[in-house]
Amino acid sequence: MAGPLLRILIRLKPNKYHSMEIAARYRIIDLFKQIAHDLHLTVDQLLRISIYRSGPNGCSLLYPMNNNFSTTHYDVSVTFDKYGLSGNEELYIDLAELILCQQQDNGELSTNDKHAASSLDKSDYFNSTASSSLNLEESSSSSLTQAKTTNNLSTKKSLIGQLIRFSVPADNSCLFSSIYFVLHSGKLDLASNKYLRNLVATKIESDQITYSEAMLGRTNSEYSKWIRKDDSWGGGIELAILTQEYEIEICVINTQCEGRIDYFGEDRHYPYRVFLLYNNLHYDPGKLKL
C-alpha cells in the first residue's frame, strides 16, 4: 500500500505555482528528485530549501528543523511520515528566488520576470493575491438554494469585486461538488461527483507516462481506482486535470495561509476563471460579485 498522500504546492514566481502529490512514505530526497525532474533543476540546487507545513494556524517550518546549515538538520533521507504527517495534508515550498537566480544566470529573464525579481521579498511568500482590490466576504446564507443562478464564470479581466462563499457538504467530495457548482451557475448536484471522479480517473489511465507512480504516490491503476471512491479527497492533481478538461482557470484561495491564491491553468490563457476557497481541509465554491 502506498499509504497517505501529501499535497505539495511549489511557488515558482509571484502568482504562479506548480502542484504535485507524493506518498508520505517517500523520502525528502525523493521529492527533490521529482521536483528537479519536473522543473528542470538539479537536486543540488534543492538541498538547502525549506519545506513548510500548512495548518489551521497558517504555515509552519517542517524541514529543516531550524534555519542553520547543519547537515544533521538537512537530512534528506528522512521519510515524510516521520514528521507525523497524515493523508491529504499540504506542504509548501518557495522556489521563486532560486528560479529567478537561475534565469538571471542564464539570461532568460523576461521584462515581467525582471520586475518580479526587483520586487520579490519574504513578505510575499505567504501572501499572493490576484488583486489588491479583491475582497473576500462569506455569504450570510448557508443554503445553496438562495444562490443566484447567473453565470458563475468570470472573465479574466474582471477581478475587482467581492468574492461570495457558498457551502457544499463536507462529504469527502467537496472539491468535485464545488467544481460542479461554479461551472453550472450555482447549482448543486451531488450525483455529478461520480461523473467528475470518473472523468479524472479516465484521464489518468489514458496517460501513464505523465501520471506515473512518482507523481501519484501509487501506481497509475491504484490511483485511478482510489479516486473513483466516494471517500477519497481530490487535490492538486484533480484540479490540474479539470482545468484542462473544461478549459478554465481555477483559482484556489487558501483562507488559512493569509489568502494565498493557487492558480491552475494560468499558463494556458483560458478566457474564464472560477474561484474555490480552501481551508486545508475543505473546499467551497466562490462567486465573484462585481
TrEMBL record:
Its EC number is 3.4.19.12. GO terms for biological process: endoplasmic reticulum unfolded protein response; ERAD pathway; protein deubiquitination. CDD domains: OTU_OTU1. It is an enzyme of class 3 (hydrolase). It comes from the Eukaryota. This is Ubiquitin thioesterase OTU. Hydrolase that can remove conjugated ubiquitin from proteins and may therefore play an important regulatory role at the level of protein turnover by preventing degradation. Residues 163-276 form the OTU domain. Its main location: cytoplasm. It is found in: Cytoplasm. It catalyses: Thiol-dependent hydrolysis of ester, thioester, amide, peptide and isopeptide bonds formed by the C-terminal Gly of ubiquitin (a 76-residue protein attached to proteins as an intracellular targeting signal). It comes from Rotaria magnacalcarata. GO terms for cellular component: cytosol; nucleus. GO terms for molecular function: cysteine-type deubiquitinase activity. SUPFAM superfamilies: Cysteine proteinases (SSF54001). Keywords: Cytoplasm, Hydrolase, Protease, Thiol protease, Ubl conjugation pathway. Pfam families: OTU. InterPro entries: OTU_dom, Papain-like_cys_pep_sf.
